[in-house]
Structure formats: C-alpha cells, structure tokens
Amino acid sequence: MEASATAPSKGIFDSANLEAREHLVELLCKAYWMEMETVMSYLAASVNLDGVRAQEVKESLATDIEEELGHAKRFAERIKELYGVVPGSEGFAAEQSFLQPPDEQTDIVHVIRGVIKAETGAIEHYTRIVEETEGVDPVTQDMTIAILHDEQGHRRLFEGFLREYEIEGVA
Ligand SMILES: [Fe+2]
Ligand SMILES: [Fe+2]
After folding, report:
1. Mean pLDDT score, 82-99
2. What does pTM read for this prediction?
3. SS3 148
4. Which of 6, 93, 118, 157 is deepest in the core (most CB within 10 A)?
C-alpha cells in the first residue's frame, strides 16, 4: 500500500501550493497592468512625436505596441490558467508619470528616457517573477523569461537611440 502514500506532484497546481499560486497571480496581475500601461504610453508617443528625427523612434514604438499587447495577453492567459481572474479596468492605477507627453512634441529625448525607464521597470519585475517561480512553476518561469528577453531587447534599442543624442550633446 506504499504506492498511495505520496501522490504524484502537480507542481503549482497542488493544493499544498495554493498560497504560492495566489501570490504568483498577484505578481502576474501587476505584470499585466505594466504591459497595458506601456501599450497606452507607447501608442500616444508613437503618434504625438513631431519632427524628421522622430520617425525612427515612432516606428519603433509602433512595432513595440503589438509586442507589449502580446505580452499582456500571455500574462492574462497565465493568470486564468492559475485560477486567477484577469482584473477589470477599475483595477488599473497609472504609474508611468515619466512617460506622459512632453511639453514639446519634438522632445524625443524625454520619450526615449521614459521608454528606458518603463523597460527597466518591466525587467526588474519580470526578473523577480523568474526568481520566485524557480522550482515552483517552471511554465510561468519559462514564459516570463521569453518576455524578459523581449524587454531587454527593447531597452537595449532605446539605449542606442539615447546614446546618439548624448554624443551630439542634445541629451
Ligand atoms: Fe512587454
Ligand atoms: Fe517592452
């Protein structure tokens, strides 16, 4: 009768892991909101910016919007899989004060710095999720690592944009 002594583990879906699962859903909801706010901020910036030199940044942001929305969808789906509920719009609280439209719509550096800050925030939060899911939920960890990789790419690209302005002494 020793076979029934320990049931096979279902990992994060084990009832013994209820608390860990609920905590993870909270972290994923925060990630979901970060992505949704990024979609709003990048959409506004991709339209608002003026000037010949803004075109590259605008196009890059326009591409990112789709990627960030894709991230939001993946976080939402994972929240559902973990028996959580994807929050409604009343649960949203804006945090990207640094990514509000600049006074002058030719102020590309303001937007570049804002994007770098947003991406850095995402990288920090997703790194935390990767750490906290270690040995707990490899599926969420794997998904988050892929998204983290995207954010590192976004951040690196905008660091390059900023560097160009720094070299010219504009930033
Ligand atoms: Fe993202
Ligand atoms: Fe991003």
Report:
1. 98
2. 0.93
3. helix
4. 118
